[in-house]
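For the sake of transparency, this paper describes our internal protein records without simplification. The record that follows is passed on verbatim for readers who wish to inspect the format:
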Amino acid sequence: MAEEIKDALREARRTGKLLDLRSSDTVVPAEVLADLLTRPDDEQLRSRTLRLTGARITGPLDLEGAELVCSTELSACRFEEQVMLLVPISAANSTAAAPS
């Protein structure tokens, strides 16, 4: 099952099409999601967008300090553990507020 969800996520990232998991019991391991968001695909091309809805994401999603390789849209997803999203500022026109 893990390989099936990895393949579905890779295909969704490659095409930019929405992967809707609302009506399934599919579990997305956070480490699989983090890997997909931070590693370019084999074609060495920047991916389009990962659009995911209704996923149950297990484990901590650690993207702190990571450079994402694609735009990401997560809607109606359930995270069972913490999500770490602090990312470095690399674009000249970007701004960010420090956590208080």
The mean pLDDT is 82. The chain has two helices and eight strands. The CA atoms of residues 22 and 86 lie 27 Å apart. Residues 2-84 form one domain.
